[in-house]
DNA sequence: AAGGCTAGATTGGCATTGCCAACTCAGTCT
DNA sequence: AGACTGAGTTGGCAATGCCAATCTAGCCTT
């Protein structure tokens, strides 16, 4: 039985969208589970084996991610195999890719390791991409030009071409 | 005395930059402390009062953030006041703004609350900004065009809708 | 139809982290 | 000197995480 932790509940009810996002994602594993979906992993066993996460924690994290619409649990059957469950990213899950990319960009820049690394690239051109602030015309703006200011919710509703579908 | 947790250590030594970033940041409070710096908070007491975080946890989190170069502890003295400590964001700390903005964008879109919120805007024009993937020329590309590929192997897809069978 | 196999959890025991309140300590100010 | 106060520390306890062992329900074989 899943009982939502106090910390998650507090965060999820926050008026700040950052805090609510963290209510779903701020633990040692959730982001890494999403990362694994980028490499095509979908099943309980794949997550367990690639991450080395304790199975009870994995059960709980998958439940939280499904509950908040990041993943969707769908039956799946390979030929000659029994039915299994796959945890497929939803559109909301796909929208986390840019958060992961931003984290990757930051870690590569500020916690370097001189190792092989994975970078976002354009599927069309194959050229590398980066994560940046862009203005309403889609042109990137320097990091220093970005400031946070409060506004009403309706102002951010317009979200033109962010989602693919 | 601060002893680094096993989970942080494991993550910080990962070859994946996402995992290393999470080694510094993946807990219920670190991102929120960084968020508070966006609103000008700098001192122990300001973080404690605005976040309601337990003081022992705050001590530990500030230590971790200083240790990894996100914040810098500097003496600070207001007129007619005793010397106090301020935790100032470093350049690495400022670079986290885009991660926070990405989280805010995701939470506003997928965990809506119809509340006042804070959005990134251009300091120059005052127009709203958003976080996007951009190509080498600084033009935004659609989320669907972004895939993750390793610098060594280019066969890892970000697009999760294709599963081999 | 019975039995075995195995993916996907669940459970128990212990370690780590988080939370709260009370307490300490060291500069400042009077 | 003595009081004040910002910035932590400490102690007790609850919650979460980790690991190994165990359970369960579909599916397959016989």
Write a structural description:
2 copies of one chain form a homodimer. In chain A, 41% of the residues lie in helices and 19% in strands. Chain A is of the alpha+beta class. The first copy, chain A, has 2 domains: 6-90, Orthogonal Bundle (Arc Repressor Mutant, subunit A), CATH 1.10.10; 97-157, no CATH class. In chain A, the strands form 2 sheets. In chain A, strands 1-2 form a two-stranded antiparallel sheet. The first copy, chain A, is globular, with a radius of gyration of 18 Å. At the A-B interface, helix 1, helix 2, helix 3, strand 2 and helix 6 of A face helix 1, helix 2, helix 3, helix 7 and strand 3 of B. Chain A binds a DNA duplex (30 and 30 nucleotides) through helix 4, helix 5 and strand 2.
Q: Most extensive interface, residues per chain?
A: A-B, 97 and 91 residues
How many alpha or pi helices of chain A?
A: 8
Listing every helix as H and every strand as E from the N terminus to the C terminus, the arrangement of chain A reads HHHHHEEHHEEEEH
Main β-sheet of chain A: number of strands, strand sense, barrel status? 2 strands, antiparallel
User: Structurally, how many domains make up the residues of chain A?
Assistant: 2
N-C termini distance of chain A: 35 Å
Helices and strands of chain A: which structural class? alpha+beta
Overall residue-averaged pLDDT value of chain A:
87
Structural shape of chain A: globular
Q: For this structure, what is the CATH homologous superfamily of the largest domain in chain A? A: Winged helix-like DNA-binding domain superfamily/Winged helix DNA-binding domain
Percent of residues of chain A in beta strands? 15-25%
User: In the CATH classification, which architecture of the largest domain in chain A applies?
Assistant: Orthogonal Bundle
Fill in the CATH topology of the largest domain in chain A: Arc Repressor Mutant, subunit A
State the helicity of chain A in percent bands: 40-55%
Keywords (chains A, B): DNA-binding, Transcription, Transcription regulation
Protein name (chains A, B): Transcriptional regulator
GO molecular function (chains A, B): DNA binding
Biased composition (Basic and acidic residues) (chains A, B): 154-165
